[in-house]
Design a protein that fits this description.
Layout: E1 2-9, E2 16-18, E3 22-24, E4 31-33, E5 41-51, E6 60-68, E7 73-76, E8 80-85, E9 93-99, E10 108-112, E11 115-119, E12 125-130, E13 137-147, E14 155-165
Parallel strand pairs: 8-14
Antiparallel strand pairs: 1-3, 1-5, 2-4, 5-6, 7-9, 9-12, 10-13, 11-12, 13-14
Length: 191
């Protein structure tokens, strides 16, 4: 018997589809449920198999219940701490964003304060760098907001502390163009 397969959902998100929408019996039918654009919750749909021919049997209906659980993401390390000497190179740190279900999370990272954020290395990471022009002192007002629309919570804030040590003290050097030194003093007085 020939058949056609349709998938319908009770919402408008079209998360349910059929891999092969038509064929002939005997056959296996594969249904695909895509959670990528669904917030956590329970979704329902129907798969209907309609047969062709002169005296087809009645359609078969399969009810589908699809439960989507919340994905949580974790940004590590959290919090961030930097320490460097004024005028020296500012170190960078790589933050990894990890999803609890093992998937590769989609996210954005937005800096606030005297730091910059760059993508990578890799799709699940970003690099945070403090401003190399900071003067000596402690800066604790910086942070990175990590946002992921499909994660719970949708935003995490990573506090950033930056300690900039004063520049190294230079040792004074006494130099002269004449290698001979002459001291004059009177007896009984200090030179």
């Amino acid at each position: 018997l020939s058949f056609t397969v349709t998938a319908t959902t009770t919402d408008t998100r079209n998360w349910l589809s059929i891999e092969t929408p038509s064929g002939s019996t005997p056959a296996n039918i594969t249904a695909l449920a895509d959670p990528s654009n669904l917030p956590s919750g329970t979704y329902t749909g129907t798969i209907t198999v309609t047969f062709g021919g002169q005296s087809p049997p009645p359609p078969l209906t399969v009810n589908v219940v699809f439960a989507v659980s919340a994905v949580t993401i974790t940004a590590v390390p959290n919090p961030l701490q930097f320490r460097f000497q004024q005028g020296g190179p500012a170190p960078s740190q790589v933050i990894s964003v990890i999803a609890n279900d093992g998937s590769q999370p989609t996210f954005t990272a937005t800096p606030s304060g005297p730091i910059t954020v760059a993508a990578g290395p890799g799709a699940q990471n970003f690099t945070v760098s403090p401003s190399p022009s900071l003067t000596a002192g402690t800066y604790s007002t910086a942070n990175v907001a990590v946002n992921s629309a499909l994660a719970v919570p949708s935003q995490q804030t990573i506090p950033v502390t930056i300690v900039v040590d004063p520049p190294a003290a230079s040792t004074p050097v006494l130099s002269t163009s004449d290698p001979r030194l002459t001291f004059s003093f009177s007896q009984g007085t200090a030179p």
